[in-house]
């Protein structure tokens, strides 16, 4: 499963969402301004910063999760391929 932590005003988030849509990659979006627990998670993986987009990939087979900050679509596709999560 791919989760993108985002805000409504983030241009980088809008760009990555468009690219994911174009590539047919399924994802969930969590607005860190509306979800304090999500904001805490983002800060925990970004040195205390609320940097978005933060992408979290959790393989269904229980493998190691992948977390990326402001990734390119190429990085996301590579991580999905390596994690065994279908797009």
Would you give an account of this structure?
InterPro entries: GlrX_actino, Glutaredoxin, Grx-like_ET, Thioredoxin-like_sf, Thioredoxin_CS. This is Mycoredoxin. It comes from Krasilnikovia cinnamomea. Residues 3-57 form the Glutaredoxin domain. The protein is 39% helix and 20% strand. By secondary structure, the chain is an alpha+beta fold. It has a single domain (2-83), classed as Glutaredoxin (3-Layer(aba) Sandwich), CATH 3.40.30. Strands 2-1-3-4 form a 4-stranded mixed sheet, with helices on both faces. β1, α1 and β2 form a beta-alpha-beta unit. The radius of gyration is 12 Å and the shape is globular.
Tell me the strand percentage band: 15-25%
Net shape: globular
CATH class: Alpha Beta
Task: Give the radius of gyration.
Answer: 12 Å
Number of domains: 1
Q: How many DSSP H or I helices? A: 3
Helix percentage range:
25-40%
InterPro entries: GlrX_actino, Glutaredoxin, Grx-like_ET, Thioredoxin-like_sf, Thioredoxin_CS
Protein name: Mycoredoxin
GO molecular function: electron transfer activity
Pfam families: Glutaredoxin
How would you sum up this structure in a few lines?
The protein is α+β, with helices and mostly antiparallel strands and 87 residues long. Helix content is 39%, strand content 20%.
